[in-house]
Amino acid sequence: MKRIFTPYELAQLAKHTITDFDLEKISKGLGETFLDIPVEYITGFCEFRKHDFQVSRDTLIPRIETEEMIDIGLECAAGILEKNIDKKTIAFADIGTGSGIIGISFANELSEKGIITKGTLSDISPNALEIAKQNAKRILGEENDLAFLESNLLENFPVSKFDIVFANLPYIPSGNMKGLDSSVKDFEPVSALDGGPDGLDLVRKLLQQAPAFLNQDGIVILEVDDSHLDATEFLENFHVEIRKDQFGNNRFWILKLK
Ligand SMILES: C[S@@+](CC[C@H](N)C(=O)[O-])C[C@H]1O[C@@H](n2cnc3c(N)ncnc32)[C@H](O)[C@@H]1O
User: Fold this and answer.
1) Which of 95, 179, 201, 244 reaches 20 to 30 Å from 158, CA-CA?
2) What is the pLDDT of residues 148-159, one digit of tens each?
């Protein structure tokens, strides 16, 4: 069976100069599965905010709604700077950074506003972290100020305090994994998707660790599943604001220490 590409996919293939000859080679290597492979894994790139980010089968393909986390981060950073007029630098962490899209975009867009950041991007996957480092070099330059850390959540972090902690951790309830599209479940890393029985295993653990790593006005910005709206019983240390994404799903939690 021949794969029929959508106009968007054809544009991506053309942009990254993937020829029919390349496609034929890829399709032979991948057999049946070529029909469902996301175009981003063919080109090796995904657009996010203003840039093309390298992706691989070790990283999730960034989702469009995750772009909204950057806007939330910029808004929170502005609030923190307004409240602390002597403050010159925003210290942040991006936990489960994958291809690095959140941390790199946030640092880049704050720097365009003349604001200095000190960011640490972490992931449990060394292969994903390697892709994030490559993206930082390409987008921010060889001499960028980001640090990269292989860590299970905040376990390997040195003692430090952050103004903002971003985390888009795996949050799909395990029971929903089988029902995902083939393009997701057969190609994207399970370790980037499966969040345990209710999808919140990692979020719960992170929020136990996070208070020790937050400045007084520190904020945690999380991406979660719409089904998590009522699962806020473990948030006793935080004031919680929930924001919808562009599709109307309750997607982002903005958490401030009580
Ligand atoms: C949903 S993906 C998000 C990737 C990227 N931040 C994005 O928004 O596209 C989740 C990421 O969390 C990482 N991850 C999974 N378990 C982790 C853990 N215990 N500690 C740190 N990172 C973890 C995965 O390797 C994956 O890169």
Assistant:
1) 201
2) 999 999 999 999
Tokens at 84, concatenated: 């602390």
**pLDDT tens per residue across span 32-55:** 889 999 999 999 999 999 899 999
Q: How far is the CA of 56 from the centre of ligand 1 (A)?
A: 14
Contacts with 148 (C-beta within 8 Å, 6 or more apart), sequence order: 120, 121, 122, 129, 132, 133, 136
215 near 163, Cβ under 8 Å? yes
Nearest CA to ligand 1 atom 9: 62
**Does pLDDT of 1 surpass 70?**
no
Can you tell me whether residue 7 is helix, strand or coil? helix
Nearest CA among 176, 209, 215 for reference residue 195? 176
Q: Residue for token digits 């991506």?
A: 12
Atom of ligand 1 nearest to the CA of 125: 25
Domain 63-257 has CATH 3.40.525.10: no
In sign, the C-alpha dihedral spanning 140, 143, 145, 150 is positive
Pocket of ligand 1 (CB under 6 A): 60, 62, 66, 95-98, 101-102, 123-125, 128, 152-153, 168-170, 191-192, 202
Residue 213 DSSP SS3: helix
Residue (of 68, 100, 89) closest to 221 by Cα position: 68
The full set of domain ranges for the chain reads: 63-257
Q: What H or E segment, with its residue span, contains residue 192?
A: none
- Of 88, 109, 96, the residue nearest 220 (C-alpha): 96
Using DSSP's 3-state secondary structure scheme, residue 87 falls into coil
